[in-house]
Amino acid sequence: MASEAKRAKGAEDGDDVEGIAHGSSAAGAIHVRDLTKEFDTEEGRETVFSDVSFDIEPGSFVTLIGRSGSGKSTMLNIISGVLEPTAGRVEFEANSEGEEVTLGHVFQSPRLLPWNTCVENIEYVHEDNPDYTRELAEEYMDLVGLSEHYDKYPSQLSGGQRQRVGITRALSIDPEILIMDEPFSNLDEITAEELREELIRIWQQLGKTVFFVTHDITEAIELSDRILMLGDGRIFDDMSIDLERPRDVDSEEFLKVRQEAIDRFHAIA
Ligand SMILES: Nc1ncnc2c1ncn2[C@@H]1O[C@H](COP(=O)(O)OP(=O)(O)OP(=O)(O)O)[C@@H](O)[C@H]1O
């Protein structure tokens, strides 16, 4: 746990064990202010980006795209608290005053402990949480379609199912903000598409803020309310995606928006 903003928790006070707060979780806002990141390298000081500012609305789905090396992981790691910025700051805002904001993380590879079952992999992040119960873990597993796999080991699951456990683990701490780092890039396209559809269903159901990183423009348009384009050391474009959901990637409107995004992306990147 790398950031003060993060805390593990199970059901909200007053909830019974059927504790998934459907659509009523307080989602968090993210405010990125004047962020600069430099690294010392053998060739000298390298600036990845400088003076980057943006705001993410509570409950929105925002995706950061950029070419390899543009600084997506660096940005995500600063937002998650894993890396310190050289200058600037990241602020989180809960909906209720005085509330601390919780971040959940979904990584490119789900990072499951192989000697633990699925449920035990979820229990692991709740070690200090007195409210945690196995029933809560099972409810979250049901939500992502893992009802038949509670007690299986990661080696007994497909890549897509393992990533579902990763998503369950992140959701199980009831975060206001879900940070997702290219979570579907290691999966075959059919599985990735299934998981994208489920992610949108869960996002609509639970009302989390999602900050998603990908290099895949089609995926970004399919999922997001907004796409931030990172390149040349700055956010050079901020594109709203106004397509209705569920989005059909083969529809004429989708392809039109996709072409516009590609044109805008290639304007700089
Ligand atoms: N710890 C580090 N020390 C020195 N340079 C670094 C470090 N981490 C990242 N960089 C440099 O910062 C730049 C941005 O890297 P970053 O990994 O954030 O890009 P990215 O957009 O996530 O790339 P990819 O899509 O390939 O994962 C790169 O030039 C990289 O070499």
From TrEMBL:
Q: Where is this region: Disordered?
A: 1-21
Query: PANTHER family this protein is in?
Result: ALIPHATIC SULFONATES IMPORT ATP-BINDING PROTEIN SSUB, TAURINE IMPORT ATP-BINDING PROTEIN-RELATED
Q: Which UniProt keywords apply?
A: ATP-binding, Nucleotide-binding, Transport
Concerning CDD domains, the annotation shows: ABC_NrtD_SsuB_transporters
What PROSITE patterns does the annotation carry?
A: ABC_TRANSPORTER_2
Q: Which GO terms describe its cellular component?
A: plasma membrane
**What is the protein's name according to its record?**
ABC transporter ATP-binding protein
Every ABC transporter domain range:
30-257
